[in-house]
Predict the 3D structure of the following.
Amino acid sequence: MPTELSSYKNQWRYASLGGRFAALVIDFVVLSMIFFPVTRAVKGVWIMTSEEHLWDYGWFVTDPLCIVFLVIIVLYFVLLEGIPGATIGKLISGLKVVGEDGRNPGLKRAGVRNLLRIVDALPVLNILGVVLILNSPERARFGDRIAGTRVIKRKASFRSVN
């Protein structure tokens, strides 16, 4: 006899690769709407080159403004996916991050999920994550599998007016 959780999971429609990509593009547009004007105000340029960075060491950039942006990006994804279950991009795309129990994942699982984007990005251009999503019945990348999260399509809810 199926459990309540397994019957609930059977109703989930897992997010497609295209839907996840669209949400990520929207998220980066939203973040860019903040970062570009701030960079212009602080550094006097819209896009920083190596000359505008205070400190760069080959591939490692430790400019304070870049570090602040990195912290903002991490907080954006962890807080929004962990508490309400969706970033702005996922909301617009009709997607939601859930734990395996169907609830919002919480900060710990969202943190693990996002930290493991580094692994999903291997070897380049998120190839590992893409391969895992395409070959998983639950369309889960490595970070989702380890964190116990899944990206699903939100159900549209309509209230009838009587």
About this structure: Residues 13-150 form one domain. The mean pLDDT is 87.
